[in-house]
User: Fold these one by one.
Assistant:
Number 1:
Amino acid sequence: MKIAVAGTGYVGLSLATLLSQKNEVVALDVVPEKVEKINKRISPIKDEYIEKYFKEKKLNLKATLDYKEAFEGAEFVIISTPTNYDEEKDFFDTSTVEDIIEKVISMNDKNITMVIKSTIPVGYTESIKEEYVISNIFFSPEFLREGKALYDNLYPSRIIVGDKGEKGKKFAELLKQSSLKKDVETLFMKPTEAEAVKLFANTYLALRVAYFNELDTYAELKKLNTKDIIEGVGLDPRIGTHYNNPSFGYGGYCLPKDTKQLLANYKNVPQNLIEAIVNSNKTRKEFITEEIIKKQPKFVGIYRLTMKSGSDNFRSSAIQDIIKGLKADNQKVIIYEPTLDKKEFAGCRVVSDLMEFKEKSSVIMANRIDDNLIDVRAKVYTRDLYSRDD
């Protein structure tokens, strides 16, 4: 079977890699450098399993800039283009998704079924069906971790398909055939409910991050041992010991935009909690900023812009808002980020030499700590208790 994948970020490239083990897959992107890398089996994103599969597996995978080449003869077109949150419109910008939909329609091939994997507002798929007068489209949410996207497709927590027909079942079977996990829990539902699952799942994760961050804020101001409290709370099996490691705030591809989109979907629906989750993250970043300012540092060193270990992405990372707050207070800030090929970022000097960075910084902020900072531990400000991402 031929499958096209539009967009080669974490979602698209992990799916393209997964499915190309047993199908012909053509990946479409608008960035020539990414297309060239994929065709040379060089992963354009940092993901351990994608890199491993590119080296070790025989994949029937090709990348192209030409949508006609990608879509012609495809049974499924998976749409995994970025949908950033538009703060002014208070909604996801779904223009890239619509661009792909229009290109598929222009192919005039009734055998193509579109599967939206991009995160979208609740009710979006049904509105698209009405707007374009089409039925060959459904939504299937993804639940992937940054840097472990292919792993999470190989060992999925669940497969959810927003379609109860034969095409939906066929798509779910494609995902299961290429995964390594047996007996994957699979749910079929209407597309609107599937869209809601995605936003509510990510907002719950954001709630959990915000909860333990607020616990940590309380403990730090009251001079209490955060770790003792978290471990005592987490031993209740109804709460558990996962996703409880304090941080500077939640960030990354999904949580900031998905929580705001869910809040926007709550228009005319009573709520307090969803808005509080969004506001809590802002409050946490402001608190962290003030804690650093209190130290009156000569130079604040930012150790990594990335949110997670093993990642090269720092989109919407919490530390960026903290940098803005520090700059607004006229603090001198330098950054160490080895994945960044620039001498300046957000008005701050980027230092490529780790030793120079350590010597120059009077306080080093590290959202997640690692062995590189052991020799300067006395300078490090972190809320990381467990040296893990969640």
Note: The two ends are 38 Å apart (CA to CA).
Number 2:
Amino acid sequence: MSRITRRDCLQGALASAAAVSASAATPVRKPAPGRPGIKLAEVLSPGQTDRYRLLAQIGVTHAIATVTGELAKVPRTQYLDVLAKIQTEMKAAGLTIAGVESHPVPAEKIKLGVAGRDEELENYVAVLKALAEIGVDMVCYNWMAGIGWYRTKVNIPERGGALSSEFDYADAQKQGLTEWGEIPEEKIWANMEYFQRAVMPVAEKLRVKMALHPDDPPISPLRGIGRILTSAANYNRVMNIMPGPMNGVTFCQANFMAMGEDAEAVAKQWLKQKKIFFVHFRDIQGSRQHFRETFHDNGPHDMGRMLAIYHEGGFDGPMRPDHAPTLEGESNNNPGYAMMGKVLAFGYMKGLLEAQKIPYA
């Protein structure tokens, strides 16, 4: 029997440490040379260091940053400093910011068309300049005035008792009007045009892609407020207000499915036109009147086929899994945005991509 000495133990420990270090430094799969690759990303707020570490562990290296909360605290003269600090923080964790989401600065007055909207527009122009200066070239924004993405229930049992969300139009109607009362679609259209004419020329000059998110749910009116991003035709109308290569789409695919659109056909059309800048990858069961969120791997739509369509259309922008159910042991305080379901989604997405030999980063 051989005798294990203290020196043997030390050498073994050092070898193990070296192996762990090498493993930690091993890069995630990169796109093949000359081929576009989908950038898998997760939405993150500054300071979510536990999520930074988790993403590093599962091989996700791109972030979609939510910066509104931080920028709302400072004057526009400080936007660049705040954004640079956020970028440095995320870069130190191995994350590249591929875009920002949910408006980079407050924009509710613009969407509602009320007093103070011109001040918000000045802030918007300033933040686009700051984003361009640090090299962030995509903004995901929405036009859901008064009410953001909306569900009537957030504790619907899913597979194994996981908690998902549901929208039911009849239940929404029972909740009545919001504090804003009734706002017709014509007013929302006018507010959109006002925004486009002020912001799009700046975005075009800076080469910042403006990726418009659909209404969620895509139904109008919702509790008295008109919604306009409820069909592919309305999207085309928006993109024709100020035509240009920076005026495009966040393709939140489940919303187009809820609209009753042929999501595959719409995606192909806009990919050909180079109008899809960002993808929200998720699935639902139902229609715009009544639907519930599913896991990414048990919904009714062919998710692998959607990934193939994006790849075949040359999409190489950021894509993130959206609205995952809340799993055992997690808080449901922020429905749709707990992390365990997202981890499952990333694994599922990577499996679908690998099986079809679709490059990703």
Note: Residues 1-28 have pLDDT under 50 and may be disordered.
Number 3:
Amino acid sequence: MVLVPTYNERENIDAILDAILEAQPSAHVAVIDDASPDGTGAMADARAAADPRIHVVHRARKEGLGPAYLHGFRWALQQPAGYTHVFEMDADFSHDPAHLGPMLAKARAGADVVVGSRWVPGGGIEGWSHVRLGISYGGSFYARTVLGIGVLDLTAGFVCYRRRVLEVLPLSEVRSRGYGFQIEMKYRALVAGFSLVEHPIVFPDRVRGESKMSLRIVLEGATAVWRLRRTLPRPPST
């Protein structure tokens, strides 16, 4: 199951659904739409009506990335298909669906969590200014330093979770709403003793639609790491 959260992604939704299913024809995709006023949800509904591999989960309002994914995780675990792995990825092509297969292969080879990483050898970012690159890399460096773990791309949003991880983690206790959610989920997985590997991806800047990043989201991530360090034990390997 591939979860794709959306808010005002009408420019991308058809193309990303096509690309995901072309890369992984046997996959299912769930669009988690936060009541997009631009009609993204209705476009996804039309696609779902024509293809049983596509699903749409409508949420009443925009609440942030974390709540959208948590809703999607719970929904996926409840489905009769019994999905063995659940992906999260963006709708704007910053996450290339071509990586779904290699990431799934690493999960099937034994990794509990596979992270599409920009900062491991072979990974990178295209189209960003030096300032934006510095902020992104600095954010991951700051988070892993405070938390004392070795994951290079803690803020990455292209992730594959083995079903068991989502069944074991206390999803109701995850508090982060923005990109701090990505840090929190990875840290909680490590604290629970699950294995995590990083798979190199190249992250291009979006070419259509608008970024959802804001100063508030950045600040939430910065404070979330101290809350996690204060309230959770260190992972077994540290």
Note: The chain has a mean pLDDT of 91.
Number 4:
Amino acid sequence: MVDNFAIAISHLLIALAVWRLVWRADLDHEDPPAKDEVGSGFFQPKVKSGGAVDHRNAGQGGQRDA
């Protein structure tokens, strides 16, 4: 009897927590991420100090500056 009561209480508390999370208004809205200046993919041009962009290795597979 005590085992069934303990299982029921724990499941009811989990169900209550899920119920409260589902009905939160702030979980329905998410701001879009900020755009990167250069990009975040492979083989993107590198930004040098001063804002100049290095296009030498952009788009070339396998070659990288050390």
Note: The chain is about 30% helix and 5% strand.
